[in-house]
Specification:
Largest sheet: 5 strands, parallel
Number of strands: 5
Helix content: 40-55%
Number of helices: 14
CATH class of the largest domain: Mainly Alpha
Shape: elongated
Radius of gyration: 23 Å
Strand order of the largest sheet: 2-1-3-4-5
CATH superfamily of the largest domain: Homeodomain-like
Length: about 300
């Protein structure tokens, strides 16, 4: 099967109010992950938030003087879904009172970028927020696919993508859904559906494919972010389910393509059987739904 090479997709811009000396460094560490729109005032950033998509806001602690604090508070309260970060840079050192005032504005993310590790933490934090934003988009798409499915099967699929602590095992997935792992696996098996482990793996690979669209994230970065023990372990995981190396997977699957495979391989062929399965509902002993015959 031939699959076209995919092109990296840039995320929405990151709006900043930084000292001129810090702008180039923010651009450098974000290459391939985010692009910046540098502004001179927080009021300019508020305008951007109203008229365009913005992934995050970066504010230099030294630029958020007393006159800018009310506007910084508006950023947080008028746009609560847009993460705002205050950066401690080498361009100046704010006082403890300055930092307290920023905290009182509602800004919860403070990143010290006076060392290289600080810039790495900033990139990782932004990558995590972008991934969360895209998880919400996936959940909205799935809601349309699952309109005709039983409510508890829909809950199962939604949990693969929307849990705050994304399940890595069938055990943790089942616990979050309030069902025994053995019960969950047994009901999928009796219904002739793919194992819950495959649904879980494909959902994880959707998220991995989205993250790998960012040239600024290496395969190792994504492996550790998804809690694999090593890049090699991540590679074996990809090969088990996709029969591709990690590099081939990156070249041929973006988030859209992987989500398409999730639908085509785990939802579409089983719609008739999914309509009869209730993997989460507790039933009296001995009462099982009559399922349509499996097709092999």
């Amino acid at each position: 099967m031939h699959t076209a090479r995919v092109s990296p997709r840039h995320i929405a811009p990151v709006a900043t109010v930084l000292d001129p000396a810090d702008r180039a460094e923010v651009d450098r560490v974000g290459a391939g992950l985010y692009r910046t729109v540098h502004r001179d005032t927080v009021e300019d950033v508020l305008h951007d938030l109203r008229v365009r998509r913005v992934s995050a806001v970066l504010l230099s602690a030294t630029r958020c003087c007393a006159t800018e604090l009310p506007r910084a508070m508006r950023v947080v309260h008028e746009f609560p879904r847009i993460p705002a970060f205050v950066l401690l840079t080498r361009s100046g050192t704010p006082t403890a009172d300055d930092l307290l005032a920023l905290g009182n504005c509602g800004i919860q993310h403070l990143v010290d970028v006076r060392t290289p590790d600080g810039w790495n933490r900033l990139r990782e934090a932004l990558a995590a927020d972008v991934a969360h934003e895209r998880d919400a988009e996936v959940a909205a798409e799935l809601a349309l696919d699952l309109q005709e499915t039983p409510v508890d099967f829909s809950r199962f699929v939604q949990a693969l993508f929307t849990d705050n602590e994304r399940p890595r095992t069938v055990r943790t997935l089942a616990a979050g859904l309030g069902v025994l792992p053995s019960t969950l696996m047994s009901r999928f098996f009796r219904a002739g559906l793919p194992a819950p482990k495959r649904y879980l793996a494909y959902a994880g690979l959707v998220r991995a494919a989205r993250m790998l669209e960012n040239p600024g994230l290496s395969i190792a970065d994504v492996a550790y972010r998804l809690n694999h023990s090593s890049p090699q372990s991540f590679g074996r995981h990809i090969f088990t389910f996709m029969k591709l190396s990690a590099g081939e997977f990156r070249r041929t699957h973006d988030g859209v393509r992987m989500m398409q495979r999730f639908r085509e391989e785990l939802i579409a062929p089983y719609r008739e059987r999914i309509a009869w399965v209730s993997p989460l509902i507790m039933r009296p002993r001995g009462m099982r739904p009559k399922l349509p015959a499996a097709h092999h």
